[in-house]
Each structure stands twice: as C-alpha cells, then as structure tokens.
Design goal:
The chain is mostly helical and 239 residues long. Helix content is 77%, strand content 0%. Helix 2 runs antiparallel to helix 6, helix 4 packs parallel to helix 6 and helix 7 packs across helix 9. The protein is globular and about 55 Å long. The model has no long low-confidence stretch (mean pLDDT 90).
Length: 239
C-alpha cells in the first residue's frame, strides 16, 4: 500500500502544486543544459577526452547543476515555511530506510553481475566503480529523489485530486526528464529518438511507482535514493 503523510498532504495548496510543476519544468531545462554542456566539452578538439569521459569528470561537471536543482527546492520550501522533513529528509529511521533501499536495489546488481560474468564480460576496476557510485548517488539518485519523490510528488497533490492520478503525473514528468540524456547519447535527429524513447516511459513510471512505495514506508528519502543508485550502478558494472 502507498500511503502518504495525511497531515502533510492536507497542508498542500493548489499553489504548492503549481510550483511543483514549475520545478519539474525547471529540472527538465537544467538537465538539458547539463547534457548540452557535456556534449560541448566532448566536441572541443582541445579537450582531454581521456579525462572528460571519466567518471570523475562527469561528477565534477554536473555537480553545479545538481546543487542548483536542490537549492531551488530548498528555497521554495523555505519561502513556504515548510521543513526539510516534508521532502523526506529526516533524522528518524534512516538506518531502516537505507536497509530497504539495499534490499530492493541489490537484486538488480546481482542479476547484472550474473549476466555479465555469464557472458565473460570484464568488470570495471574498483576506482571507476567507486566514482560511478558517487556520481550515481549524489548527482543522479539524491537530486532526482528529492525533486520528484520528496518535492513534486507530495506538492502536486495540492493541485491534483486523487493519489494515483498524482503518482502517474509525477511518474510521467520523471520519465520525460530523462529524454535529454537519451537524445545526447543517441546522436541522432530528435524525432526518431523521441519516438524510440516513448516505450521506455512506461519503464520509468514503473520505477517511479517502486520509489514512491519505498518513500512512503517512513516518508524518508533515503530508501529510494539507495535503490535508485544501485539500479543505475548495476547498468554500468562492466566495460
């Protein structure tokens, strides 16, 4: 069962929902700018590609944009006189939430390891995996979970009637936010890439549903953050 904090949801007004949608649009814009900037760096002949294609570089380049997204959320809840606990940042039950994140995310890692080793793939070195973990934890999982599960998902219920309707709308926003990354990696015209991306929207919405379920166990953001990081890491374990 997915049950949000009733007291928090009651406090959410239509204004909170509208701001949540604006934050979603802003996140899409920031994501697009981030990947355009990375593509610009990759296209420069004077750039050391060995460094800029490394995991350390991805972390360093995207961290300013990540901080901007989080600061916008913190600024909004400050203006609205809301606490950090309303976006799932709490002092209580953190260990339990981390355990839940590992419990739900670890199977993805184990499955990918079995498939990779079964096909004689080469595991990335420890240093690369470490920076990949840091990158996926801070630059991807933490910021996306705070914005989509902690902020937008709760606030949009002040504008949209119905728990499930709000979940599907937020899940759709979460899915669309990934399109700039897909477009950059495809290096192809936008329309064919968009049409090929459409089937994956359902996949992202499915992951959103699981993350919301984990978040609502204790209204704690750490559970979906840890699972999100492990899922992303599992995709890039091998060379």
């Amino acid at each position: 069962m997915i049950e949000f904090d009733d007291e928090l949801i009651v406090e959410m007004k239509p204004k909170d929902g509208k701001v949540a949608l604006l934050v979603g649009i802003f996140t899409f814009f920031i994501t697009s700018v981030t990947f355009l900037f990375i593509r610009y760096l990759w296209g420069r002949p004077d750039v050391d590609m060995v460094f800029w294609e490394s995991e350390v570089a991805k972390f360093l380049v995207s961290i300013p944009f990540v901080l901007l997204g989080i600061l916008v959320v913190i600024y909004v809840i400050g203006v609205r006189k809301q606490s950090l606990s309303t976006i799932g940042i709490k002092r209580e039950k953190n260990i339990k939430s981390i355990f839940l994140g590992v419990l739900f995310g670890l199977p993805f890692v184990l499955i990918k390891l079995r498939i990779g080793f079964g096909n004689n793939l080469v595991l990335k070195d420890a240093d690369t995996l470490f920076w990949l973990g840091i990158y996926y934890l801070i630059n991807i999982a933490l910021v996306e979970e705070i914005i989509f599960r902690g902020f937008i998902q709760t606030r949009i219920q002040g504008l949209v009637n119905g728990k499930w309707k709000s979940i599907w709308i937020t899940g759709f926003l979460f899915a669309i936010m990934h399109f700039p990354n897909v477009l950059m990696n495809a290096n192809a015209p936008i329309l064919p890439v968009f049409f090929s991306f459409l089937p994956t929207i359902g996949e992202f919405m499915f992951y959103h549903l699981i993350h919301v379920y984990l978040y609502t166990r204790d209204q704690n953001i750490l559970a979906p953050v840890v699972m999100h990081m492990l899922i992303d890491l599992s995709i890039n374990l091998f060379i």
